[in-house]
Amino acid sequence: MLQFVTQIGGSVTDGLAYIGSLASLGGRAAYYGLVGPFQGKPLRLQRAFAQAMEVGVRALPVLSLVTFFIGLILALQAAYELTKLGAMSVVPRAVALSMSRELGPLITAIVVIGRSGSAFAAEIGTMKVSEEIDALETMAISPVDFLVTPKFLAMIVMLPCLTIWATVMGIFGGAVFGVAQANFTFTRYVQASIESLFIRDIVTGLVKSVMFGITITAVGCFEGFSTGGGAEQVGRSTTRAVVMSILLVVAVDLVFTAVFFVMGSA
Amino acid sequence: MSPENPILQELPAVLSVRDLRVSYGEREILHGITFDVKAGETLVILGGSGCGKSTLLRTLVGLERPSSGEIWINGKNLATVSVAELYEIRKRTGMSFQGGALFGSMTVGENVALPLREHTKLEDSTIEIMLRLKLEQVGLTGFEYHMPSQLSGGMKKRAAVARALAMDPQVLFFDEPSAGLDPIIAAGIDQLILELKKAFRMTIVVVTHELASAFLIADRMMLMDKGNIVAVGTTEEMRSSVNPRVRQFLDRVPEPDVEGEMDYLQALTESYSRSLERNPRV
Questions:
Q1: Interface membership of A232 toward B (CB under 8 Å)
Q2: Strand partners of residue B93
Q3: Taking CB atoms and an 8 Å cutoff, what residues of chain B touch A119?
């Protein structure tokens, strides 16, 4: 029994230490991003822009497809129950709300974890193994400034953009069902979706997506930097980056959903 | 320790190390290292695998923090400087890594130009000229648009030297310059080091276990074993040394098999238990 409690205690401290490390890395990257420009060190906009292309623009095809399907699935699932109540007119509202508040940000985050969170860990892990991180240090270039800050910038800007896109694609996916099965015209479906959304719904989704972006970047880069020697370690870091990112993104999601819920009902 | 060459002694020391100790966790790797590197000389640090020579080099460029002792470069003690001061010192030193450590996502030219772009406010056209000069110095003229993956091992090392030279460093560090290269390419790298020495009177510290290369490029040599300095001296002094450890290393006598069972088990499990400490739950 005592051993069990000790184990739980150990896991909790480990978890807190992990989150502490992420926060520390994020804080340091923020220092270079926010304080650096005032000390004559311009932001690495070129590198951030390249990252934004990679993280954001190149994710569009797969993200569009995934969220389009998700929107269609949501409409089908909602209709399954709503036809019994004769309330098919609520389908656009159900799809639009769940996409903008929850599934848009979450699905976007998961696609980005798979594409970019893993890539961050692999890139930095490989650089660690081949002494490139050491080389940066010996050239008096901060690896955090050079590698991490541009990634944070790119993710903080691109994730909300992708999330908006994902929500729109989800609504289109729902519209396909609405037009085919529920006697909506396309315009009327989209109009019904827009009317059911309040600014609040969109903003909560976007706030979440920014937090997801920060989480994914911090985990990906941290796992990259903690890569030990050898190529197989890079694979392990990449896996850990994906698993930990999904776990933490869902946890962050829960926290923010709870906070918005309390704020909304208060 | 053998008496030092009087000519070298008159020159000021660029790098002074005093009673340097470095530990990884509980285990001490370097047990009180003391030596000087004079301006314009080439010091070769020799030793077998695991003797601490790589750790020493990493400590000299500030990648490892010493647990005690002093490292003086240009009147600054590396063991106590702030991060900002450490970065200032690093702008004046160059390091060529064993595998080159070129950034795989950048061309050779971008690699070499990176320190200049980061630390100077030079015009692009000036950087372009300096880049050509550095590449010419290492015999890589015309390779600026190649990716590191397109270069052979020897060329990668030359490119890494060009990058280390970019800021015109006062001290140049080499980690195993001829490791993993065939003898002809390795001889080419030795020639490059000799040329740098002759043309720029550059202060160079080389870590290697290649004897032929060491005797060719060194002004002075330092032999290390198990985290201690065994002997320091000019190439001539080393050749005629009667110190049994020096003789053993130079004459390539294999280590007698005297380790007991406990030593064997400790060596066997050491790296494993260290990896468990780092990553307990993987």
A1: no
A2: B171
A3: none
